[in-house]
Amino acid sequence: MNNIISISFDDIDSQYGGCTTHFTGIFFNEIKNKVKLIDYPLLIRLNPGIPWKTRGNASTALRFIYDDPKEIFEIAKNLVDEYTNPRPPLPNKKPGIVMIQGKPWENEKFKTFYKKTLSDFVLLDDAIKLLNDESNKENVFYYGGKGLIGATAAQGALGLYEPYTYELIFYRLPENWDKERCVDDNTVLKVDKSLPSCTINNYDYIKEKSSVKPNGPDPILAGFRGTCEKLLWNYEKSLCEKPHFSLLYRSNQHTSFELFKDFYPYPYRNVEIEGTVLNTKILPKGHVIITLRTKYGDFDISFYKDTGPLNKAAKLLEKGDVIKVQGSVRPYSFNNTTISAYSMEVISINYTSIKLSPRCVVCGSRMKSLGKGKGFRCEKCGFETKNVEKIEIIKDRKLLPGIYLPETGELMHLQKEKYVRLPILTNFPNVDEHDILKIYNNP
Questions:
Q1: Of 196, 176, 187, 218, whose CA–CA distance to 89 is shortest?
Q2: What is the pLDDT of residues 85-114, one digit of tens each?
Q3: CB atoms < 10 A from the CB of 233, how many?
Q4: Which of 147, 156, 250, 257 could be joined to 110 by an S-S link, Cβ 3.0–4.6 Å?
Q5: Nearest Cα to 273, choosing from 331, 334, 342?
């Protein structure tokens, strides 16, 4: 009997080179001859504001057909243990595996749980309770610790009628993990310019460098993002280091799907909040802090210098401007909650006016008031008159209404680029192993 199986992973990260997406590629290579894929491998980004997240806060999932779910689950457990034993997980991390026989992406409870993990804080107990509750209706298997949160979320992700993108990830040979990555930025630029407008955040045209290389001693060489899955392979020519293997993921990256909610800004939530600017403070290093009066109270909003255009726009804000901010709530201290801004919409500008004394009709100099009702005198030529009044001038503003985003290289993983048109899934794709996995050296 052929069973639809969905298996997901999270928290398989390590300071010694582990990575959840890297593990997923190794696991898929292990089972590829047993199963029939019904979707691309999934890369699921979660709430970027969670402080104890894995790098990039991503879980993964595979959807396929196979007749023996228990066999697959045992392979996954053994491989996770084997993968993590030589490279202990990061502090407070514990890998999580969830496997469900059925279509959890159509289950409203799993879909709701997934959406909550995009914008809110979720407890491990919540994930375990959901898995236990649903195990009465579907065959549910799970194993591990805190990683069960992300792994459970991945089960409800990227169903029909949701936007999506792709990421093609190239992985490094183990002997290169502690060496500098070799990706040719000029070639990335050439490929980026040669493709239609279907690539996302692969080259930073302001800083004139690629945005595809991670930092740190992890297995990823480079990741190329876009909506044109076949054309992403063109970036392979930019690699000046031989990869270990590569895997093409379907993802919720850069979709902004369910990312921001208009709700009270409790710590670690991603919120969309509208209000009136009370004051603007520019810090010595160029960061900007504004105080925003909202229906929930007054909150500090931070615009970091490295967000580029977003930071520059924030410097032009003045008291009375009405804005809508999307950002992550950071509890920097018990009494100080700050919203770190990811984007800003300027809804209306508060134009203020100043009153100036009139100019002298004789010599053109600015006149001086002699007191209320006493008229004006020109200090330069001595001309006096009571037949003029102060002139009201509207103060010029350089800020315009509109949407302001960080520069391309500073976009959060889930943030949508302004001009990218996203595909919507209407049918699950027919996927072959050769469409998604390329092995240069057997992992």
A1: 218
A2: 765 555 556 899 999 999 999 999 999 999
A3: 14
A4: 156
A5: 342
Q: What is the DSSP letter of 15?
A: T
Confidence of residue 84 (pLDDT cuts 50, 70, 90): confident
pLDDT at 373: 87
Q: In this predicted model, what pLDDT tens digit does every residue of 5-45 receive, in sequence order?
A: 999 999 987 656 678 999 999 999 999 999 999 999 999 99
Task: Decide: residue 8, CB within 10 A, 0-12 exposed, 13-18 middle, 19+ buried.
Answer: buried
In our burial notation (b when 16+ CB lie closer than 10 A, e otherwise), range 50-89 reads: beebbbbbbbbbbbbebeebeebbeebbebbeebbeeeeb
Q: Are strands 336-348 and 297-303 parallel, antiparallel or unpaired?
A: parallel
Tokens 């030529």 belong to 381
CB 301 within 8 A of CB 289: yes
Q: How far apart are CA 184 and CA 192, in angstroms?
A: 12
**b (16+ CB within 10 A) / e for 300-332:** bbbbbeebbebbbbbbbbbeebbbbbbbbbbee
- Has residue 395 got a pLDDT over 70? yes
Return d(Cα 419, Cα 17) in angstroms, integer: 35
Q: Residues 248, 24: contact at Cβ < 8 Å?
A: no
As a whole number of angstroms, the distance between CA 415 and CA 253 comes to 7
| DSSP designation for 430 | -
Q: Domains, the chain, ranges and CATH?
A: 3-255+420-439 (3.30.70.2200), 270-351+396-410 (2.40.50.1010), 353-394 (no CATH)
Cα gap 78→35, rounded to integer Å: 18
3-state SS, residue 135: coil
Return the DSSP state at 241: S
Apex 123 CA angle, 98 and 151, nearest 5: 20
The whole-number pLDDT of residue 14 equals 62
Long-range contacts, stretch 314-317, CB < 8 angstroms, 24+ apart: 314/280, 314/288, 314/290, 314/341, 314/344, 314/404, 315/280, 315/282, 315/288, 316/397, 316/398, 316/399, 317/277, 317/280, 317/288, 317/290, 317/346, 317/399
The residue written with tokens 């203020």 in the block is: 352
| pLDDT tens, residue by residue, 348-384 | 999 999 899 999 999 999 999 999 889 999 999 999 9
**C-alpha–C-alpha distance, residues 67 and 64, integer Å:** 10
